[in-house]
UniProtKB/TrEMBL annotation:
Domain GFO/IDH/MocA-like oxidoreductase, residue spans: 240-338
UniProt lineage: Bacteria, Pseudomonadati, Bacteroidota, Chitinophagia, Chitinophagales
Pfam families in UniProt: GFO_IDH_MocA (PF01408), GFO_IDH_MocA_C3 (PF22725)
Listed name of the protein: Predicted dehydrogenase
PROSITE patterns for the chain: TAT (PS51318)
Organism whose genome encodes this protein: Chitinophaga rupis
Length: 459
């Protein structure tokens, strides 16, 4: 490499330092990292008018990201807490239409697309209503809270023909796309195990979100929030920390497993497991929640035309005294693909054809004469070329400042403008959400759950 080329390359790597500084590649030699460039996009001339139902953490985050895409205008929001609607006007302007009633918002003719970022038990109802009103829908993960709801969303998408994208944004990442290419090229050999974890140890990570001081029956439409769940007195904890309750959320599997499953299905082309078994416990966050803070699950993936049979183990531990951490590893017979967030590495360890001898081996128990005879026989049977395996490592990372969620919205809006398929439609969404929901089913029933990934039904 020339001095000029080397300096240019190091400048590129320096621009990636912010991305890698706290990530899984931080401690590795940067000279060998391949910098992945996102696809160049053409700015749109036509305007897409966007609304959002559910202006919580994900709602504001999604809207902020969507507005980075050219040709998108935010025009309306619905939420059951008045403070969120006031915040909308503070952030996006007083001209943005706001309402507590999502139907009033979606009945408007001047809205083209809607983000559904509500608690999980409202996803299906609002998504279906929006598509029937002619809107494209970007629905946060998990797509639904119940399996039957997923089939209704799929049927509505097919009937209306409206664009529908599930918000597990990693499948639009340039790193995920490249990892899929590497996997499909056979760089890790035959896949046999996938293992992933997403551990945390902080209150916000365990969903103990802040509750506004003005939360009251006057500022919160709590009865509407409850929907068809059990009627209970006003409780701001249930409203603002809804992930802690089976009635409104989907626990650890719906919040975090679904991300891991989505990436797994995207890379391998799988449509899902045939059996799920889960265990866990409520260890640390005994704050009234009725879902566990530690979940471990095993998924059996059967052989298909596109992948061999393999097992997957997923773990999330909110009581990790080590401070938390995450990894996803695709383990094959010739290598391992280790995903970060917008980076990954491939470590190859292909065995040589020759088995070797010595070390922890019966060779050392042979007599000297037998050892000499064995070596002569070995060298005849295995020439030098057959004694060399393949040990190598390659690393890939998106450039500094890259945002996979923005690319996910680009994909969504391009589908609206051009008819191009989204990366994560309703069928993909249910095939990712299904195993996560089965994890809860298995945990609470304390038994394995069998699943038909083709029909997306419990067996």
């Amino acid at each position: 490499m020339s001095n000029n080329s080397r300096r240019k390359f190091l400048r590129q790597l320096g621009s990636t330092a912010a991305l890698l500084g706290a990530g899984p590649l931080a401690s590795m030699g940067r000279e060998h990292i391949h910098i992945l460039q996102p696809e160049k996009r053409i700015s749109a001339n036509d305007k897409i008018r966007l609304a959002c139902v559910g202006m919580g953490i994900m709602g504001f985050g999604d809207v902020d990201t969507a507005l980075k895409v050219p040709g998108v205008e935010f025009v309306g929001a619905a939420d059951l807490y008045d403070g969120h609607l006031q915040k909308v006007k503070e952030v996006y302007g007083s001209n943005v239409f706001t309402t507590r009633d999502y139907r009033e918002l979606l009945d408007r003719k001047d809205i083209d697309a809607v983000i559904v970022a509500t608690p999980d038990h409202w996803h299906d109802t609002i998504s279906i209503y929006a598509m029937e009103k002619g809107k494209a829908v970007y629905c946060e993960k998990p797509m639904v809270q119940q399996i039957a709801e997923g089939h209704q969303v799929i049927a509505t998408q097919k009937r209306t023909g409206k664009v529908f994208q599930v918000g597990s944004q990693r499948v639009s990442s340039v790193a995920m796309v490249e990892a899929r290419k590497r996997y499909q090229a056979g760089e890790i050999g035959q896949l046999n195990v996938v293992e992933a974890c997403y551990d945390r140890h902080d209150a916000l990570g365990a969903w103990q979100y802040s509750i506004p001081p003005d939360a009251s029956p006057k500022t919160v439409d709590f009865d509407t929030f409850l929907k068809d769940t059990a009627k209970v007195p006003f409780d701001p904890v249930r409203f603002f920390r809804w992930r802690n309750y089976q009635a409104y959320g989907t626990g650890i599997p719906g919040d975090l497993f679904v991300h891991l499953i989505t990436g797994l299905h995207y890379i391998t082309g799988s449509i899902g497991p045939s059996r799920v078994f889960a265990s866990g416990n409520l260890v640390q966050w005994k704050d009234g929640r009725d879902v566990p803070d530690v979940v471990i699950a095993i998924f059996d993936y059967p052989e298909t035309k596109v992948h061999p049979a393999f097992q997957t183990t997923l773990r999330v531990n909110f009581a990790d005294g080590g401070g938390g951490g995450q990894y996803t590893r695709f383990i094959g017979t010739e290598g391992v693909l280790e995903m970060g967030w917008n980076d990954f590495k491939i470590k190859k360890h292909k065995l040589p054809e020759a088995p070797g001898y010595g070390g922890w081996d019966t060779y050392n128990t042979f007599t000297k004469a037998q050892q000499e005879a064995y070596v002569q026989q070995y060298n005849t049977k295995y020439p030098e070329a057959m004694r060399k395996g393949d040990r190598s490592e390659s690393k890939y990372a998106a450039p500094a400042g890259y945002d996979d969620r923005q690319d996910h919205f680009v994909n969504f809006f391009e589908a609206m403008r051009t008819g191009k398929a989204v990366v994560e439609d309703a069928t993909f969404g249910l095939r990712a959400a299904g195993p996560a929901l089965l994890t809860n089913e298995s945990y609470f029933k304390k038994q394995p759950i069998h699943w038909n990934p083709e029909s997306m039904q419990i067996v």
